[in-house]
Amino acid sequence: MAPLKVGMCAALTVEVLNSLQNAGVRTVSEFVCTDLELMMTRCCVSYKDLVAIRKVLLVQYSAFPVGGTSWYEEILSTTAILSTGNSRLDDMLDGGIYTGALTEVIGASGSGKTQICMSVAVHVASSLQQNVLYMDTAGACSGHKLQDILHNSAGERESTALSRIGFRRIFDPWQLLDLLQKTKAAISKQTDPFYSKLKLLIVDSVAAVLSPTLGGQQTEGHAIMLNISRQLKVLSSEHSIAVLMTNNVVHGELGEPWPGLGRSWQHIPNTRLLVQGTGTTGSQERQILVLKTPRLPRCLSTTLTLSAAGILDLHTHTSQEMQGQLEASERN
Q1: Which of 22, 107, 169, 173 could share a disulfide with 111, CB 3.0–4.6 Å?
Q2: What would the CATH number be for the domain defined by 81-331?
Q3: 8 A C-beta contact, residue 316 and residue 153
């Protein structure tokens, strides 16, 4: 919670603030949770001033109740579903990747996570004509690979498709956090046309930059991981952006798959998918399994084939219905 500062209200003067801090009351939450009569005794501040400060802090920092109907209508007006370009994957995800939510793809090295991300990016940029910001932390993506997928995928060819994909190379978590904050600021300002139509943010992968800072006595790494997750949630929820991330996979004592980055990260994504081979040596088929979702039954699965067109269907074309949904979301 925010620390108490001079100027939050007229009664919170330097003398009052010093008295509160000497009594161990340093934050807004500590102030509103402490009995006023007890504070009056400890801090030698008048009861009238304490009541005035409390009223102002409650107005500034309390959550306002919202009716269920209003909340439901807001969700309907701001949520869009981005097709992945693969009909099987879309069917399993109840339409595709949802804006306002974090979707994570986990899997072993070489399982096809980056191929999935690049395919979705190309489809959103070319078929849905929306902008994509691709943050590459592992060096697995490149403009040439994106162009190859666009060239080999079916559907309407667009020379401007790649211009709708913003590519950023990230080397450490601090750089990632800085870019997320700058992205949030750019969306809020609405001065750059690229960010006004930004609908998909890809981080490939979160593990590559966060894993080296975790473990042992590195408490700073855990703090920045939570800060990054908070920025991703704010971007997705406040600006109606779909976030797609990749992560490593680890295995428990019984061989069950778990996402990398520890227990704190397990609850961050809204939807988690596991990509793995089908067991056939040399096969390009991949099994996609739903491990976590707020909308669907767990353990749903489908099979995809990796190809020069990524995971895109050969019959993928521009979806007028999807385009209309995105335009309606932007108007609201």
Answers
A1: 107
A2: 3.40.50.300
A3: yes
